[in-house]
Amino acid sequence: MSHLHADDHNEAVLKRAFFVITGFALIEVAGGIVANSLTLLADAGHMFLDATALGLAWYAMRLSRREIDGTLSYGYHRWQVLAAFVNGLTLLLLVVWILIEAITRIHTPETMLPLPALSVAATGFVINLIVFRWLHGRHSANVRAAALHVLGDLLGSAAAIIAAVVVYFWGWTQVDALLALVIAVILGRGAWRVLRESTHILLEGVPTGLDLDEITHTLSTEVPGVTGVHHVHAWALTAEKPLLTLHANIDERLDTHAVVAELKRVLLGRFGIDHSTIQVESGPCPDHQ
Asked: Coil, strand, or helix at residue 245?
């Protein structure tokens, strides 16, 4: 699937997920009030937060499709990375909130009506499972960050189901807080991964999977006419869009255009880099002078 078609599909999935999660969050608020269930109300808060994250991710993807202009010469792709970074931060805030809420409930358990809570939580679990399946496994870091938010809701719905069942049969309300602690650990790990990946891109780090030494060696030894490669720099607009610049010493007796074309063919075929800028040199590097 091409990047263009993949972006179209990712945008449609985010839009659909945003409206589904927002709609059910409103239903869950009503169910939490009727059942006097703090678990459902807390999960509704999670869903509203996640709906915000999905809306942000959707807007960022739409924004990234704007044409290149004089202000942002590379386009708006980095908005996706920025949205993933913000989503990672909100996930960490969500983890802190869950930890505080869980500790509070351990010390001061709250009563609830288990059967209404169970019906709403079970419905939420099915809806979140469907939305998570829409988002899970995609290559976009922005969509993966949104999927982690939905995973939080999925786990929250599962915790609400278990809590309702345990309260109904045994009356042990502290189980809700204990399950919340498990959720916090899982979400914390996911949030850290999202933040690490998006921060690496924002700091112009070398894209994951690229080895600059390997690129330098391959181009220097396998492309005829190239006598040396230096000043190799690689970064990414998004996780799926790597960029590279380099200086190449080329035998001046050869067709420079053909050699550069071969360099670009190797960069694309071997390393998946379809946007590269190559400075051709036939003598000492001007930067060194």
From this structure: strand
pLDDT bucket at 64, cuts 50 / 70 / 90: low
CATH 3.30.70.1350 domain range(s) in the chain: 212-288
Q: Where in the chain is the domain with CATH 1.20.1510.10?
A: 3-202
| C-alpha distances out from residue 7 to 47, 139, 187, 215, 222, Å | 24, 10, 26, 28, 34
Q: What is the mean pLDDT of residues 157-163?
A: 83
Measured over the CA atoms of residue 221, residue 226, residue 227 and residue 231, the dihedral's sign is negative
Return the bridge partners of 235, or none: 243
Per CATH, which fold does 3-202 belong to?
Answer: Alpha-lytic protease prodomain-like (1.20.1510)
**Residue 236 — left, alpha, or beta (φ > 0 → left; ψ -120 to 50 → alpha)?**
beta
Instruction: For domain 212-288, give the fold.
Output: Alpha-Beta Plaits (3.30.70)
Contact between 164 and 121 (Cβ < 8 Å): yes
Please give the helix or strand (H or E) that residue 247 lies within, else none: strand 242-250
The pTM of the full predicted model, rounded to 2 decimals, is: 0.73
The rounded Cα 173 to chain-centroid distance in angstroms is: 34
Strands (E), 140-275: 226-236, 242-250
Q: Token match 């960490």: residue? A: 92
Q: How many Å apart are CA 204 and CA 187, to the nearest integer?
A: 26
